[in-house]
Amino acid sequence: MSYFNVGKINYEGAESKNPFSFKFYNPEELVLGKPMKDHCRFAMSYWHTFTYMGNDPFGGATMYRPWDVTEDSVEKAIERVHAAFEFMEKMQIPFFCFHDADIAPRGKTLAETNEILDKIVAVIKEEMKRTGIKCLWGTTNAFGDDKFVHGAGTSCNATVFAYAAAQIKKAMEITKELGGENYVFWGGREGYETLLNTDTGLELDNLARLLKMAVDYAKEINFTGQFLIEPKPKEPTKHQYDFDTATVLAFLRKYDLIDYFKLNIEANHATLAQHTFQHELNQCRINGVLGSVDANQGDPMLGWDTDQFPTNLYDTVLAMYEILLAGGLTKGGLNFDSKVRRGSFEEDDLFLAYIAGMDTFAHGLKVAAALLDDKVLEDFKAKRYASYTEGLGKDIVEGKVGFKELEAYSLEHGVTKNTSGRQEMLEAILNQYIVNVK
Fold it and tell me: What is the DSSP-derived secondary structure letter of residue 416?
């Protein structure tokens, strides 16, 4: 049975007028000696694509999907699997990402939930074998149920902590069974609303204990996927413990977990933290912890996680620039943690949205590659910091001088004249590349 009236989406080039075609994403095209598909490693988010019904903070469902017609929740989950793999096949998307609660309904007990998960996972494995589509990462939903009202790993209730650990255990086992290349920890409700009732020290210690248990269990079951933490500020709690890259890095270093975790960076989370997408990727790159990316964008005029499909070329160029400088996405990928707008409720809109996102990142990749190949920004930065490659600057970098030596130098020589940073010129050059690279 086919759920979509759309055929396979193919590359037709920038001049094509066919909305159901790629204008920039050509999977086999070589960019810096590697196929575009290997640079991008696109993934479908199971939750936003196949369980999002158009709800927002102010309104209910607007989307009624042909794979959701049955009343039986388990059969509905099975139909969603078939629809999801048909969609990915037609979109030429090689990976998917999931929460346990996305792929299967909850049972009345943990044991029943696990039984249902096993049934759905068996269907997913059949579809993976049929199509060759792979699992980029899995995770658990430890934030949606009312039991997680005070958090999961940071809950004040020890039995909730235990239940969260049990969910993670099962989700890790599923991810391993599906060959997942990563496992993601998203904080969800790991934060607090007020310090009047919160022991932040204990909560952070417990969160670290939970992550250490996960590390130990991964070794026990021989799960070799990369652990990822996804920073997110604000929503849903006022103070999130995983606010941004710098906050997560401080946590990992404090608890000696830095060797086991990398980060999954989401564009919309970056902007909610008052950072740019590029900034968060940059901080991961220079600290060696760039793992994977949730590809989306937010609305600067709205203060919540709108998870829009990425269409901003400026952002994707700079994102891919950082990713290329980092050596590319190895086990990670570009997961479209994006949802169609509430008013885009037809099934065809899923294709049009993913085409827009994939094309935007593909063009961003080509522009970033051209900038790197021409060394436009790198040459400028090298010249700007040239004073640290010889003389006094070289001695500073190599640790050969201290305060006394630097004071003596300053007393004798003073300060040389600064040069312009030429930000506007570089921004104009960036625009030129965005327009001219084909």
Answer: P
> Is 38 an annotated catalytic residue?
no
- The residue among 220, 238, 233, 137 whose CA lies nearest residue 185 is 137
CA distance 181 to 289: 16
pLDDT confidence tier of residue 298, bands split at 50, 70 and 90: very high
pLDDT tens digit sequence for 397-410:
999 999 999 999 99
Which DSSP letter does residue 134 get?
A: E
Is 82 marked active-site?
no
Q: DSSP string spanning 382-394?
A: HHHTGGGSSHHHH
| CA proximity to 46, closest of 137, 152, 154, 155 | 137
SS3 (DSSP) at 237: coil
Q: Is the pLDDT of residue 191 over 90?
A: yes
Average pLDDT over residues 386-392: 98
Q: How far apart are CA 297 and CA 431, in angstroms?
A: 20
Cβ contact 165:154 at 8 Å: no
How far is residue 401's CA from residue 15's CA, in Å, rounded to a whole number?
Answer: 59
- Give dist(CA 64, CA 66) in Å, integer: 7
Tell me phi and psi for residue 396, to 5 degrees. Answer: -65, -50
Instruction: Kindly name the residue from 99, 275, 279, 363 that is annotated as catalytic.
Output: 99
Residue 162 has pLDDT above 90, yes or no: yes
Please pick, among 39, 100, 102, 294, the residue that the annotation labels catalytic. 102
Residue showing tokens 């300060």: 415
Overall pTM surpassing 0.90 (yes/no): yes
**Does the pLDDT at position 377 exceed 90?**
yes
Contact 171, 46 (CB under 8 A): no
Structure tokens at 329: 């996405």
Q: What is the pLDDT of residue 202?
A: 98
